[in-house]
Design a protein that fits this description.
The complex is a heterodimer of chains A (about 90) and B (about 400). With about 90 residues, chain A is an all-alpha fold. Chain A contains 3 helices and no strands.
Chain lengths: ~90, ~400
């Protein structure tokens, strides 16, 4: 896993939810981090904006999905964007 | 039958940021219509509106909440806070949160958010729309935010019937409390409709005045858009009395009807039916009505039609009832209009004075009743009718009277 991507992701989550980035672990769910349903939607939007990708639709409540799941989905989206024809 | 009284009111609109200022300006006959600022005026033929000025949302909402609040909902919450504060009601008492309803009218919902989101999409070619767009634009959002703000878990919903939305909301709240579905209701209307897209659309309907709003007068040239909100605390009478609340007025009755004809040409018969039903529902004889707050949009079609409808309803009494359209001052706030006009109705009842029809020049022979031109008038007012007639031919008339 690209450490820079992970760090940027954590920073976006921390900024959106107003929490200390140090409290985020791959096992945390957004719910654990106290992120409410609307903030979760906004966080996904910010991640997509930041990385220029589109993440798959998912349950916006994030009750069960972890930050690791988000990171994996993000990495997949970045990989497929990089593999797309015409990608730099 | 359970009676319903009004124990709190709050408002924000072009005339003022609270109900007391709004009423004072109305009584002074000051029109808040001015050069439009929210919209690039060079793109408009009609360059005036009644906008809420000197308004800073950050003074009312924190950073966390503001992104999910369209201007319409902001206005609704601000007005509701004032109404609840004034009523002195304590929602922590017993099961009152469960026994409290929220019913808020709006004509076009979160119009400013709609316009902004789609400007990005179509105008700026930005393919992404902010994910809070839906929660901001939905027409039920003002009702949602009031229920959340005060933790009210009784029946809650939005009411949408264009320019009659507020009065339909009052009617629904009245029936809900009468029927025992709630003991208290926050009811009223909210609108923030002054965007480029919607103003152009009204312009295309050819009903906007390019100078100012002059209801019932010969030189009237159409309506002028306004914005704002007014929210009221409605309460079951015995409950209000037991807790020693100050009762502003009794919400005595409502009369609803549909024209079932033209979408934009108001029918005399529909308006008459709504006024008669309101009087009957309130148990008020014709001679009790001491003031009519007219719909009075200042369009060529509305004012003569409403005049004829008042004549048909009140017969020989029609010429001696003071009538005014306060839209000349706060503009036509569409779904919030009836709620802003309730401020006028309650003011007239409490201060025995009729607010004027501002901007009045010469009388129109087609509008030949007593429209209280330009200057407020002292009057014995023990009951008021407040008229709202919506595009689509949806009519809602509310009757309020002094609490006895």
């Amino acid at each position: 896993m690209n450490e820079s991507v992970e760090r940027q992701l954590y920073e976006i989550i921390a900024k959106q939810s107003g929490i200390d980035v140090a409290t985020i672990t791959p096992q945390s769910t957004l719910k654990d981090l106290g992120v409410d349903s609307l903030t979760a939607i906004e966080t996904i939007f910010e991640i997509e904006e930041h990385f220029g990708v589109t993440l798959p639709d998912r349950d916006p409540n994030f009750d069960t999905d972890s930050v690791q799941g988000l990171l994996t989905a993000l990495q997949q989206a970045l990989d497929s964007a990089a593999a797309a024809p015409g990608a730099a | 039958m359970r009676r319903v009284v009004i124990t709190g009111m709050g408002a924000i609109n072009a005339l003022g940021h609270n109900a007391a200022d709004t009423w004072r300006e109305m009584l002074a006959g000051r029109s808040a219509i001015g050069p439009i600022q929210a919209v690039p005026a060079e793109k408009l033929r009609a360059k005036v509106a009644a906008e809420v000025r000197d308004y800073d949302p950050a003074q009312h909402f924190d950073d966390k909440r503001l992104p999910i609040l369209d201007r319409t909902s902001q206005f609704a919450v601000i007005a509701a806070r004032e109404a609840v504060r004034q009523s002195g009601i304590d929602f922590d008492q017993g099961d009152l949160r469960e026994r409290s309803a929220v019913i808020v009218g709006t004509g076009v919902g979160g119009e400013t958010s709609h316009d902004e989101a789609f400007r990005r999409l179509y105008g700026d070619n930005n393919p992404r729309v902010h994910p809070f767009t839906i929660v901001r634009v939905m027409a039920n959002a003002p009702a949602c935010h009031l229920s959340i703000e005060f933790g009210l878990t009784g029946p809650a919903f939005g009411v949408v019937s264009a320019c009659a939305s507020s009065n339909h909301a009052f009617s629904q709240a009245l029936q809900t409390i009468r029927a025992g579905g709630a003991d208290v209701a926050l009811a009223g209307g909210a609108e923030a409709c002054i965007t480029l897209g919607l103003t152009k659309a009204w312009e295309a309907m050819r009903v906007l005045a390019d100078d100012t709003c002059r209801p019932f007068c010969l030189q009237r040239r159409g309506l002028v858009l306004g914005e704002g909100a007014a929210i009221f605390v409605l309460e079951e009478y015995e409950r209000a009395r037991r807790r020693g609340a100050t009762i502003l007025a009794e919400l005595a009755g409502a009369g609803l009807s549909a024209d079932a004809s033209d979408l934009v040409l108001p029918s005399q018969a529909g308006a008459v039916a709504a006024m008669r039903r309101a009087l009957k529902d309130a148990g008020l004889p014709l001679e009790r009505i001491g003031y009519i707050n007219a719909h009075g949009t200042a369009t060529p079609a509305n004012d003569p039609s409403e005049t004829r409808a008042i004549r048909e309803t009140f017969g020989a009494l029609a010429p001696i009832i003071p009538i005014s359209s306060t839209k000349a001052m706060h503009g036509h706030a569409l779904g919030a209009a009836g709620a802003l006009e309730m401020v006028a109705a309650l003011g007239a009842l409490r201060e025995q004075a009729v607010p004027p029809t501002a901007n009045f020049l010469d009388p129109d022979p087609q509008c030949d009743l007593d429209y209280v031109p330009n200057v407020a008038r002292e009057a014995k007012v023990s009951a008021v009718l407040s008229n709202s007639f919506a595009f689509g031919g949806l009519n809602a008339v509310i009757a309020v009277k002094r609490a006895e």
